[in-house]
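Today's session is about reading a structure prediction critically. Students often jump straight to the picture, but the first step is always the sequence itself: look for stretches that repeat, for charged clusters, for runs of hydrophobic residues. Only then move on to the predicted structure, which in these notes is written as discrete structure tokens rather than atom positions. Here is the chain we will use throughout the hour.
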Amino acid sequence: MNSTKKLLATAVAASTMAVAAMAPVANAEVSASVGVASTYLWRGYDLGSGTPAVSGDLNFSQSGFYTGIWGSSGDTLNGSEFDLYIGYGGEVGDFSYDLSIWSYVYPGTPEGAEIGVGDLMEGVISLGYGPVAFTYYENLEGGDGYNYMTLGAGIEKFSVLVGQHSGDLDESTHLDLSYAYNDNLSFTLSTILSSNDGDTYINDEDEEDMIVVDGDVKFVVSYSLPIGE
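Below is the predicted structure for this chain, in token form.
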């Protein structure tokens, strides 16, 4: 684990331990939701190849500390996905911050190669000021050399995000434009702005499993519904 990875892990661990010791139980909150999307859009890539995706999450939060699980179908290459996460975030005036660690779990890919808890992990740092936020994703396990960063902004119902991949994936940049019709229904336009060689490949170690991602504009409709409210 390099110094950046150690910093991410230590920062999240320290903040979560401090909150656990100080925060009153009365502030604890449990939330859950289910959702459906016209396809699985992941950091500018259409992992579902147009196949609708069903997702759900369960989250526990207390005075800035949070932990939970998110799951989704729709990934045509790796099958069902479950993400476990833990983190801490807050605000100081107009500034916001968030530190988290994520473990991505794929119980059974179409090829039968299971990815378990701790096999594929990322540390995430997000810093914001007003409506603008910068987020950096650093690989901690299972994908050495890969990192991802975004710069986004939101004004009322509209938001824009630029994301940059580098490392194991061919370097590429994507642009997402989103509109939230209400708290449940949203629309997103996404496109690859640039890549190393025109085409971007996911899992380029095995030519049979490659997904070629072109620069066509992708239109995604998403609907989510909170549970228990």
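Discussion point for the tutorial: The domain at 3-226 is CATH 2.40.160.40 (Porin).
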